[in-house]
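Supplementary Methods. Inverse-folding protocol.

Structures were first reduced to a discrete structure-token string of length 406. This string, shown here, constituted the complete conditioning input.
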């Protein structure tokens, strides 16, 4: 064998192909050089996709509606931070950019075509969906591109518009509406008894788990000149589509069962039997902790909710008697009975009217007894409608708002 020829097997091990399928041969030194170059390019390359602030359009919030003239078209409105008109002497304001598309992705690409810079979603705090959209199309086709895009924040808040359109929520004012609503939602105590914030990743998890049904907060605006932002109740979903609403009052009792509260006020009132003056107390929830359980007799579920609650009395009106230890004990009992009755009423009304589980009983069954869940999951909604609900609330008054004598 000639010295200038290598064994065939050695040549095969060194063989590579180019893009056209032609054979290339490479020695060990060449391989080492190429690997060194590749390593250097990785270590020294820096942020290959870096863009300066002057090359970006910052998106604060997104609103999605259906086109009234063509229901197959989406109308996507972006609230954009208006850096051009902002200065050190004025507050940063926003402006709206509206686009259309047969898909959400197409609408976003159409938005980029209108701009001289790329849209940046790293600061997008809010996604508002119209009632018509979630009732007719549902969430699946709308949220899918948001789940897939790694440039979208997974903790973006999702809400349903209480007005006719979602775009109305983002109409410009003296402040950036998306940031303002996000701040309101993040301060849970502020809206503890009127709504329940829901973030993008939470919606994704609930859809994937397919156990607990979805309830999204409802936002609305009022006022002609100065916009007043309100959070009122929840939009109820069966699967992907909105099927109903829960008002503010009932939302308070639902939240006691679902996740507990750390703030929010309630009222206990009674009417004198002789038709005398009404007497009432207003109390604030300092802390409430719910727990769920169930039993199954082979045909029917019994769903149990236990709530432990610490409250403070903030108003005390009427002839209740002297605020002593005996009265405190009686009020604790009366409050517990009232909360148990109202909470049970709300849970049962949601079950019977909509046949959905927004409390999380299905999740409890799935986690505690996976075998049972496999047996009942296909007919869970029927089981849910026929289930017996038991609510047991215990209350401790830790502050009566008076100098204690007991």
């Amino acid at each position: 064998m000639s010295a200038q020829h290598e064994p065939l097997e050695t040549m095969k091990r060194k063989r590579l192909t180019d893009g056209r399928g032609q054979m290339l041969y490479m020695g060990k030194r060449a391989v080492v050089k190429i690997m060194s170059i590749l390593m250097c390019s990785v270590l020294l390359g820096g942020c290959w996709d870096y863009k300066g602030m002057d090359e970006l359009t910052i998106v604060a919030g997104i609103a999605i509606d259906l086109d009234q003239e063509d229901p197959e078209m989406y109308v996507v409105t972006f609230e954009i931070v208006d850096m051009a008109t902002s200065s050190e002497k004025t507050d940063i304001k926003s402006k709206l950019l509206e686009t259309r598309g047969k898909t959400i992705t197409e609408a976003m690409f159409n938005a980029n075509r209108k701009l001289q810079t790329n849209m940046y979603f790293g600061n997008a705090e809010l996604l508002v969906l119209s009632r018509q959209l979630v009732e007719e199309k549902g969430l699946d086709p709308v949220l899918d591109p948001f789940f897939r895009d790694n440039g979208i924040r997974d903790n973006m808040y999702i809400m349903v518009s209480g007005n006719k359109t979602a775009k109305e929520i983002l109409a410009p004012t003296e402040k950036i509406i998306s940031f303002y609503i996000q701040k309101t939602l993040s301060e849970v105590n502020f809206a503890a008894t009127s709504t329940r914030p829901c973030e993008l990743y939470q919606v994704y998890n609930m859809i994937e788990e397919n156990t607990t049904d979805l309830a999204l907060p409802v936002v609305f605006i009022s006022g002609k000149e100065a916009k007043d932002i309100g959070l009122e109740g929840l939009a109820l979903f069966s699967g992907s589509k909105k099927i109903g609403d829960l008002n503010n009052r009932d939302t308070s009792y639902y939240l006691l069962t679902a996740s507990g509260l750390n703030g929010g006020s309630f009222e206990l009132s009674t009417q004198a039997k002789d038709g005398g003056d009404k007497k009432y107390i207003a109390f604030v929830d300092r802390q409430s902790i719910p727990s769920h359980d169930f039993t199954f007799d082979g045909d029917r579920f019994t769903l149990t909710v236990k709530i432990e609650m610490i409250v403070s009395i903030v108003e005390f009106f009427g002839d209740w008697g002297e605020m002593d230890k005996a009265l405190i004990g009686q009020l604790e009992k009366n409050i517990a009975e009232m909360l148990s009755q109202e909470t049970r009423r709300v849970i049962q009304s949601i079950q019977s009217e909509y046949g959905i589980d927004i409390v999380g009983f299905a999740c409890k069954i799935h986690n505690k007894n996976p075998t049972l869940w496999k047996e009942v999951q296909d007919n869970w909604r029927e089981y849910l409608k026929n289930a017996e609900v038991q609510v047991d609330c215990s209350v401790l008054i830790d502050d009566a708002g008076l100098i204690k004598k007991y």
